[in-house]
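Reminder: ligand-aware prediction takes two inputs, not one.
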Amino acid sequence: MILVTGGAGYIGSHVTRDMLVKGYKVAVLDNLSTGHLEAVDKRAIFIFGDIGDERLLEQVFKRFPIRAVMHFSSSCLVGESVRNPMKYYQNNVEKTIRLINKMLAHQITRLIFSSTCATYGIPTGTVLTEDHGLHPINPYGRSKLMIETILKDLSESNGLHYVSLRYFNVAGAHPSAEIGEDHFPETHLIPNVLQHLQGKTKEVSIFGGDYHTPDGTCVRDYIHVCDLSDAHILALEYLVQSNLVSDIFNLGNERGYSVLDIIKSCEAITNRQARVKVLPKRFGDPPLLVASSEKIRNVLGWIPKHNLEQIIRTAWNWHEKHPEGFPK
Ligand code: UFG
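Here is what comes back for the chain with UFG:
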């Protein structure tokens, strides 16, 4: 059985569903602070609670035959992390240490960790490889880097085996449109643009129009949530098959799109017109983040199947089918 922390969240719910389809048994641990019970596949065991609750973790690890942990639950907003860093150090660092400590106490030594390209900071070239320097420019990136550092140390001394996946910008929804992105408040670009095109907001804010990028707006690498999910399952198989590995992989599509590119693509796909307003830069935003995913393609055989159009189309289907998101 695989324990999925944060399995009621956007990414965790997609991976849970895919693992169940592949025949894995899954237990989801989630405090529903940002996740949705309705997003959790009914075939999974659902445990309501917090990863920082050591008594609960003790019970979970005693009761269920957990072979590996996929750890999604964390705070993950760059802007919020700048305003409220302690939330990030408590949720992402302190509680993760408690989780790993309990895992090791129960001889559970396999972990898939949700990391981020925000660990890199400002890129020195046009494409980021895993060996690029790590100089995060926001507390979110620093909190994830702290855990990566801890994982490396534990892999050398405590028998922990981990795969850390450095996500670029995850978007899109399950092709069934039964699960998708539902954050409150929503801060991510693609859902913000689509919700605006549904008439929910007056305009789309563009945070910064004078970056040193081709059109002056930030460039990001968007990856479909189902491609991301495939990579998690490959990483799990890699950990289960080999008892000795630990590794770090980027997860992106290797293509950069600016904020304006995204708005134009959303307009074309929905056949609607957006109203935009350029606002000051958001603190903590690097101008450009584009992945090299060569390593994960070569080592795990990962092949992303969705381009930007499919990312936006599946996200749009989800928003059209669930204009209010999951039932509240
Ligand atoms: N942006 C806008 N307007 C919006 C929302 C976003 O202009 O309404 C801009 C942002 O300033 C940024 C880009 O669009 O330049 C993408 O912003 P998102 O908020 O969608 O995503 P981030 O890049 O800030 O962060 C996301 C995840 C992080 C992850 C990161 C990797 O939230 O967890 O991608 O780049 F680390």
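The first helix runs from residue 10 to 21. The pocket of UFG is lined by residues 76-78, 116-118, 168-169, 187-189, 192, 204-207, 218, 220, 259, 282, 285, 289 (CB under 6 Å). We will return to this case in the review session.
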